[in-house]
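S1.2 Input.
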Amino acid sequence: MDAEQVVKKILSDAQREAEKINNQAGERELAEQAGFDEQLAEYKKQTELLVTQTKKEKKEHLLAAARMEIAKEFLAEKGRILDEVFDRARRQLQNWSDDDYRQLMAKLMLDRVETGNEEVIVDKDERRIDEQFISQINQQLSSSNKGNLKLSDERSDIGAGFILRRGKIKNNASIGVLLAGVRKELEAEFARELFVSRESS
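S1.3 Output.
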């Protein structure tokens, strides 16, 4: 499974969970509206002074407040789901077989090398990205005269993945950073969905 497939699976899992929560939020909104309608009917019985416009404004105010509260709960629940999905994805990636992990890292590294003179910084406990792995990557880069990567003596607490460093320039391809980028895109999409939903209601 390559990086694109991993991202697609993460997006698919998150989308299914999001649709489930979206349906639940819709049901709650309908239930809240029914309750407010009943309350407004009781107000009408208690006083004849409430005119139609007043009732309408009161109902709109109550429904607007209810929608806002549901929206907050909706986003909080989506955040919880994303936490679970991405935590699971991070663990799965870290626990991949050595061959699958190296294949993914090779693809990521080949995609991100700029000059070929970068140092490769890995996690303090990394054992699968070693001198032999870097040598194989350099062989693949040799045709474009970029095969001069070096495994740095410096180690960093990044979990899985790596950092390419050239002088003061760093290209962080750690799994945590990659997943954070995907999550940011998903959260932006959820926010757009919520905005459209509120505009159309």
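S1.4 Remarks. The longest strand covers residues 150-156.
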